[in-house]
Amino acid sequence: MNKSDLRRKYKDLRLKLSEEEIEELSLKIANNLLKLKIWDFEFYHLFLSIAEQKEVNTEYVLHILQGKDKNVVVSKTDIKNHRLNHFLLTDTTRIIKNRWDIPEPEGGIEISPEKLDLVFIPLLAFDKTGNRVGYGKGYYDRFLDSCKPGVIKIGLSFFEAEEEIKEMFDTDVALDYCVTPNRVYQFKN
């Protein structure tokens, strides 16, 4: 399938999920993450879920990270420059929703993408080789391109892998892992 068809398909599938299903599936994803040997790093980037888009609820992942006393970094969208800026999440960080309902830090201690060890990535679909489809604006591709070589990229998905995503571009950044409620996919990139 091509990217636009996959976006339509998976947005529709997510819209059919109830709040209870989202919570149950998100908890299963967090539990599957615990099976990975990824918990010895210092800086973890976590997306804050857009409830209106019925994204994976990353609150469970946040609790794991906080319980392990990790540095959690979250993004703020810079619409003008089509970039993400990254801030350390602290006890005093104020989170507000922007005009697209994206929860973002109001400000705080800015963290360079080069400091990040691992990035959890929102997505709509992914395939068996680690290619992914997001919302189509390229924010995460540009962000991941600015991270240090070897940063671990983990997608979180309610759904299993597609066989193949057509129309991939040179600027598309593939995943190292994708975690679903039922399994952990590991890719050779």
From TrEMBL:
Gene3D superfamilies: NagB/RpiA/CoA transferase-like (3.40.50.10420). GO terms for biological process: folic acid-containing compound biosynthetic process; tetrahydrofolate interconversion. ATP binds at K3, S4, D5, L6, R7, R132, V133, G134, Y135, G136, K137, G138, Y139, Y140. InterPro entries: FTHF_cligase, FTHF_cligase-like_sf, NagB/RpiA_transferase-like. Its cofactor is Mg(2+). It catalyses: (6S)-5-formyl-5,6,7,8-tetrahydrofolate + ATP = (6R)-5,10-methenyltetrahydrofolate + ADP + phosphate. NCBIfam families: MTHFS_bact. This is 5-formyltetrahydrofolate cyclo-ligase. It comes from Salegentibacter flavus. The lineage of its organism: Bacteria, Pseudomonadati, Bacteroidota, Flavobacteriia, Flavobacteriales.
